[in-house]
Design brief:
6-stranded mixed β-sheet; about 25% strand
Length: about 110
């Protein structure tokens, strides 16, 4: 991943490497990715869990990391996390809704 990032050609096909570097911050209800070479601020997906529904509330990717599949990797990790815990997913964040429409749910069940 480091060599691809240095060359600047990280994209959706490389998100497996990004996914492996994503941290689940349970106490803060978010998944985050930090690339200190690109930005001092991490990219993140914030969520809440109520009544067995994981609500994907907000995604943020710093400008220096945009266009490299980071947001998609965060959503994919969140969807897989929900599926592994048998949680339904609510797509409050506009980006997560668009991602699921384009790429699927990765085994998650979408809440009405």
């Amino acid at each position: 991943w480091y060599q691809r990032r240095v060359r600047g050609d990280l994209n959706m096909s490389d998100t497996g490497s990004v996914e492996e570097a994503i941290t689940h911050e349970r106490e803060d209800n978010k998944f985050s990715f930090n690339d200190p070479e690109s930005s001092r601020n991490p990219a993140f997906l914030e969520y809440s869990i109520t009544d067995n529904v994981l609500d994907m509330l907000h995604t943020f990717v710093p400008p220096a990391m945009r266009g490299r599949g980071v947001a998609g990797a965060l959503v994919k990790v969140g969807l897989k996390h929900a599926a592994s815990r048998n949680l339904k997913v609510k797509l409050t964040c506009w980006y997560t809704a668009g991602f699921v429409k384009k790429h699927g749910t990765f085994g998650s069940k979408i809440a009405p």
